[in-house]
Amino acid sequence: MIPSAEAAKQIENRPISEILRPLPNFEPLLSKPHLEQPRNLNLNKHWHPLTLFQLFFDWKTMSIIVKETNSFAFHNNSASNPWISISIKELYHFFGCLLLLSLYKKSPRAYY
User: Fold this and answer.
1) pLDDT of residue 1
2) Is residue 84 part of a domain?
3) What is the pLDDT of residues 12-21, one digit of tens each?
4) In contact, 66 and 87? CB cutoff 8 Å
5) How far is CA 16 from the centre of its chain?
């Protein structure tokens, strides 16, 4: 979000220490895992990788990403280079390719 001209004038001559809040001190949580407590995942069941991925990127989240990606691309591409809308399925495929490429130790360009 771009600040208004009035808001920009209000902070223009102020020192940065007055504008930004100080960061709180980070203290890691040090606790032992409770082995007898229930887990979020049943480890006795075989989980499909897509099902595990969808725990973090569900259909609603992916639809928001697709909508915003298409909106951004429509506004920023020219008529000579039109944007072809992507679908949720295509975005899942793209994320899957990124995950697979992350398994390689070398740059993917070296394979071409």
Assistant:
1) 46
2) yes
3) 677 766 666 6
4) yes
5) 29
